[in-house]
Structure formats: C-alpha cells, structure tokens
Design a protein that fits this description.
Elements: H1 12-30, H2 41-46, H3 51-72, H4 79-106, H5 108-131, H6 133-141, H7 147-164, H8 168-176, H9 182-206, H10 212-221, H11 224-236, H12 241-261, H13 265-275
Length: 276
C-alpha cells in the first residue's frame, strides 16, 4: 500500500512519525489554535515522501478539514473579500496545475528537487512570518488592502496553494486587513480556503495527482484529523499560543533548510532513535 509513497531508504517508523505529525498539525491548525501552523505539514511530509504524492495526499484531507471548519463557521462570512481573493486565485490555480502537468509529463524525478527547494524557500519565509506575525497583523490593520492588492494576493494564493498548499499567510493577511473582527475573520478565511481547495481538486485529478491509490492512502490518515482538532482545542487553554508558534517556527525553519539544501538532519536523528 505504501509503494510509491515512501522515499527509498526511509525507515517505516520514521515515515509514519513524520506523516502522522504533519496531519495532526493540520487538525490542530484548522481548529483555530495555531493560525499558520499547517505550513509545517508539507515540508515534513516531503522529507519522507515524493513531492507529487505529498501534494496529492494532502488535498483531500485539507478539504475534510475545511468542511469541519465550515460546520463551525457556516454563517460567519463576508462574501466580498472571499470573492476578491477567490476569483483571481483561479488564475493562480491554473498556473499551478500547468506546473504539475509539466512535472507529470517530464517525470517527477526531473522537477522534484526544484519543487522541494521552492517549498523550502516558502517554509523559511513563513517561519520568519510566524516570528513577525503580530507586527504584521498590526501593520495590516492600519492599511486596508485595495482591489489590485486583492488581485495580486489572489493569484499568488492560488499558485502557492496549488503547488504547496501554502497560501495561509497570504489569505489571512489580506482578509485581516478588511477589519472584519475575529469571528467573521475566521469564518471568511475558512470559506475562502474551502472554495480554493475544492477548485484545485478537479485539476489535481486531471493532471493525475489524485487517483485511487492516493484516496486509499488517505483513508489511513483520516482518523488523525479529529484527533488533531481535539488536541488543538485541548492545547488552546493549556499551552501558550506564542510558545506553540515558536516551536512550529523552529520546526518549519529546519524543515525548510533541509529541503532547500537537500540535507536530512531531522530524519537521520529520528532514524538513529528508531535503530537505537
């Protein structure tokens, strides 16, 4: 069942630790605890899985997380900023799908290293964003984004989301600038990502990323989503969000550096623990 999903030479225990933690973090992030913590999932999984399998396996799980978020925020939305981001994001999604189509045509081996470096750069940038998140939000709060900013943010969100499921800070900063208040902000972000991820799905299927083998693999991971959601709610009242974000920042930075420079410090550390 894992054939084609696990990088050669990766111990099975290390594989499940990395993948399991990545999905748990998605559940924790979507529960509203850690904001952009979900960015860590992709680089963690790319350390033990082929890049195309990571993107494909995450999308159906992200959609399930989105549906769970909509259940809690069905009426908490403002359509204007949703559409301002979503409509131009379609162009970015098309560009991202074109990249994946090219990767499939030429072979993931030829482009896999470049995609890993791209994700590594994004991870490092977003790790720095976590550190500067509070200052960023304060600055954005005083600068309402305009129409052309929405277009640029939408295209960028669509592309980075299609390639790396990493549009969280882009969407969050733009919608935060609209001054909606906490409840409407959370719900509007949830609706935006639901639309973006649902739009990506047919393109992922068309270029051959999502197939039966991916869905069969995802079935093994689905139970981790409610567990992560529960953990997020439990941690929310017991652990400082700032402290948690610092941990996510360090792990994201290290994972990004590993992907960018093609080193496996963390994986080798876990491998030694498993072998020991």
């Amino acid at each position: 069942m894992l054939e084609g999903f696990i990088e050669p030479g990766t111990p099975l225990a290390v594989f499940w630790v990395f993948v399991g933690v990545a999905i748990l973090i998605q559940g924790i992030s979507k529960s509203g605890f850690a904001g952009g913590a979900g960015i860590l999932s992709l680089p963690l999984m790319m350390l033990v899985m082929p890049v195309d399998r990571v993107a494909a396996a995450l999308l159906p799980l992200l959609i399930l997380c989105d549906f769970n978020a909509l259940y809690n925020h069905w009426d908490n939305k403002v359509w204007k900023p949703i559409l301002e981001i979503y409509l131009p994001s379609i162009a970015g999604i098309l560009l991202g799908a074109l990249v994946w189509w090219q990767v499939g045509r030429q072979g993931v081996e030829e482009y896999g290293a470049w995609i890993k470096r791209f994700v590594g750069v994004i991870a490092i940038i977003f790790a720095l964003y976590i550190v500067a998140r509070e200052a960023s939000m304060r600055w954005v709060a005083g600068h309402r984004a305009g129409r052309w900013t929405a277009v640029a943010a939408g295209v960028a969100a669509g592309f980075t989301s299609t390639i790396a499921h990493a549009a969280g800070p882009i969407v969050s900063l733009y919608i935060f600038s609209q001054g909606l208040g906490k409840t409407l902000f959370v719900g509007t972000v949830a609706w935006t990502f639901t639309l973006i991820n649902l739009t990506k799905l047919p393109f992922y299927c068309a270029v051959g990323l999502v197939d039966y083998s991916v869905l069969r693999f995802d079935i093994l991971l689905v139970p981790l989503i409610p567990i992560g959601s529960y953990l997020g709610k439990w941690m929310h009242t017991r652990i400082s969000e700032r402290a948690f974000n610092r941990v996510i920042m360090v792990l994201t930075m290290v994972s990004g550096l590993e992907l960018l420079f093609n080193v496996r410090i963390v994986q080798r550390f876990f491998s030694l623990l498993v072998l020991w």
